[in-house]
Amino acid sequence: MTRPSAVRAKQLPLDLGGPPPPTFDNFYADANREAVVRLRGLPEAVHNEQAGDRLIYLWGEPGSGRSHLLHAVCDAAARHGLGCLALTPHHALQAFAFDPALTLYTVDDVDSMNPAQQIAVFNLINEVRAHTRSAIISAGAAAPLATGVREDLRTRLGWGLVYQLHPLSDTDKMAALTQAARERGLQLSPEVPQWLVTHYYRDMPSLMALLDALDTYSLERKRAVTLPLVREMLAEMQG
Length: 239
Hints:
This protein has 239 residues and is of the alpha/beta class. It has 2 domains: 30-164, Rossmann fold (3-Layer(aba) Sandwich), CATH 3.40.50.300; 168-238, Orthogonal Bundle (Helicase, Ruva Protein, domain 3), CATH 1.10.8. Helices cover 46% and strands 10% of the residues. It contains 10 helices and 5 strands; from the N terminus they run H-H-H-E-H-E-E-H-E-H-E-H-H-H-H. The chain has helices at residues 4-9, 33-40, 42-47, 66-79, 115-130, 151-157, 170-183, 191-199, 204-221, 227-238; strands spanning 55-59, 84-87, 104-107, 135-140, 161-164. Helix 5 links the parallel strand 3 (104-107) and strand 4. It is elongated and about 60 Å long. This is DnaA regulatory inactivator Hda.
């Protein structure tokens, strides 16, 4: 079966751009509702010094929505006119320096950071704790005690609120695909979401990548997204 990257590798005549940016509005909360509610209100609460816990750690398996929520936090901060710095293992050490002009920091894939970056995150957490109008949200694949980072950083990650993110059920994934298609103005035949979830990759990023390809493919051919169209596109890309 063709992977989403292969599906998208063929140059189609129409380019509709990428998917919409990750926000709280297009995150499918379900069992993660408590974490979403907390994160959604965090920028304003921190700005007003009413946040309480300002250290938050998210963990869960790939596809559970960790990166989506970190992006959504920065989006919410921007909507309030607040500064947010999003850090990943790809950033140089100087990027981890604390800036009192910023309100929020997000640190994605903290368990993939090198030792020097881990020290920088440890120092950043300490700086955030010392400034009441700032907060830091980190994310990794495992719970704090099981995270393969320095012991001092592992301890810091567990000091604040810790949320395990649970992946969507198949029913939730179907609803998420239907909603995402609706946001794109794309009409899916009722059987398409179920077929995609049961016959294609089960993680949401891969499913959303396929939805983007279907969006372009159906518009190019001026046809609705039906199951025959889905199979036709996959067969063409494999061929």
